[in-house]
Amino acid sequence: MKLWAGRFSKDVDTRVNDFNSSISFDHRMYREDITGSIAHATMLGHCGIIDPSESEKIIAGLKGILEDLEDGTLQINYEAEDIHMFVEEELTKRIGDTGKRLHTARSRNDQVALDIRMYCKREIGEIRALVLSLLSAIADKAEENVDTVMSGYTHLQRAQPVTFAHYVLAYAQMFMRDISRLDDTYRRTDVMPLGSGALASTTYPINREMVAELLGFPAVTMNSIDGVSDRDFVIELASDLSMLMMHMSRFAEEIILWCSSEFGFLELDDAFSTGSSIMPQKKNPDVAELVRGKTGRVYGDLQTLLVMMKGLPLAYNKDMQEDKEAIFDAIDNTKIAVEVFTKMFATMTVKAEKLRAAASYGFINATDCADYLVKQGMPFRAAYKIVGGLVAYCIANGKSLETLTLDEYRQFSDVFDDGIFHAIDLDTCVAGRKVTGGPARESVERQIGALRTFLVEQKQK
Q: Which residues pair with 162 in a beta bridge?
């Protein structure tokens, strides 16, 4: 019998039961549900709302249920309406009517609000750890490629000389911001809603602060209506995960391009590639492609949450049950994507000679050529025009800036001397960009050092 069945004169249609049920997905919150109930029962006994002996009996029963679920002795009953009812019904089976006292001064509305907050807190911690592992892999790969010269790109066209280390460290900055966003979301999630009741709190003399302390929350929600109807933290987490997946998708796209024969800059380890059912020669970057594809799925979860909440009046509405599947899906797909992507990235081979060879074409040292003239006293716009003419000349004659003779240079400006050949050497071009954030070795080493410090600090939290 449903706990709310007293008001009704007939059973709910079986199809409504199926439509209403959430245990098929919310069962994953059993740890949070039982842990929250233990804290609630502890507080009820401490405050004298139920007899302390009954509180102890309830707590022992709940601990037994948790232990049995963890070791597989007890299986989830998917005929139950939700995980909350399953736990309470199992408790009553084990300890009798005393189990029915557990729900005193509590509603399923504030109970589920507590469970989802606790679940999101735990998952944020796990996702954080995965992103930190990815950042560590980036730091390692950057250290291996501090002197691996390559072309940077704008508009997917060769632009200016950088290093592979400098390039991948750009993604490190993105993932560091993702950590910061997750931390901000955690802070707003870390507020305890139990005690809000259905929407108007309770007449029992409960101690919400005690429950918060038992569960490791630093604060309680300040408005009971908001306490049960707030899902901002779920939407915010989905937004954070969408950003994280977007960053990985951009990274994945570059890896897909760079593994192609047209680029040939990288080779993925066989353990993180797949073949073709018909073309024996194929080595496909399926992991990177799936990261790119699953990004859209996580975006969809965010949109589900936003649209689900946009028209809801206060306080709790059954629509809000839809938050679980969306955030669970976003969490699951993000976690596996980060984990597999990290292993793929850490094991891939960087083809330094191919990167260097590609950087030798496309006039990526043209800006340095213009800067050479500027350093001789010429205005930049005048230098820009001269080098543009040089590039046009090279294209027409099948040459590069490195293969021009000094006489050819001097046809465009008598400011040129033998120093131009050193100035446009790719190693010189990179080494000269020493400013903070630039690709020169000393700048990149500072970036790696800052990343290593960040990793140490984050792991100490």
A: 150
Per the listing, tokens 């729900």 go with: 103
Strand 349-350 to 266-267 pairing: antiparallel
Among 318, 409, 421, 405, which residue's Cα sits nearest to residue 365? 421
Q: 356-398: per-residue pLDDT in tens?
A: 999 998 899 999 999 999 999 999 999 999 999 999 999 999 9
Which residue in this structure is represented by tokens 């919150």? 29
Residue range 213-259, pLDDT digits in tens: 999 999 999 999 999 999 999 999 999 999 999 999 999 999 999 99
Using CB atoms within 10 Å of the CB of residue 453, give its burial: 0 to 12 exposed, 13 to 18 middle, 19+ buried. exposed
Bridging pattern class, strands 157-163 and 266-267: unpaired
Residue 381's CB is within 10 A of a number of other CB atoms, namely: 10
Any idea which residues carry the catalytic annotation?
155, 276
Q: Which of 25, 18, 227, 226 is nearest to 114 (CA)?
A: 227
Structural element, H or E, at residue 152: strand 149-154
Structure confidence by residue, pLDDT tens digits, 36-80: 999 999 999 999 999 999 999 999 999 999 999 999 999 999 999
Coil, strand or helix at 213: helix
Instruction: Yes or no: say if 265 and 254 are a contact pair by the CB < 8 Å rule.
Output: no
What pLDDT is recorded for position 459?
Answer: 85
Residues contacting 60, CB < 8 A, separation 6+: 95
When pLDDT is cut at 50, 70 and 90, the band that residue 276 belongs to is confident
Say how many residues make up the chain: 461
CA-CA distance, 58 to 116, in Å (whole number)?
Answer: 22
Amino acid code (one letter) for 348: M
Q: HEC string of 250-279?
A: HHHHHHHHHHCCCCCCEECCHHHCECCCCC
Could you give the CA distance from residue 117 to residue 186 in angstroms, rounded to a whole number? 9
Q: What is the pLDDT of residues 119-145, one digit of tens each?
A: 999 999 999 999 999 999 999 999 999
Mean pLDDT of the chain, nearest integer: 95
pLDDT over threshold 90, residue 412: yes
Cβ-based neighbour number of residue 416 at 10 Å: 23
Nearest by Cα to 19 from 322, 343, 437: 322
Q: Would you list the DSSP string of 305-332? A: HHHHHTTPPSS--GGGGGHHHHHHHHHH
| Amino acid in position 355 | L
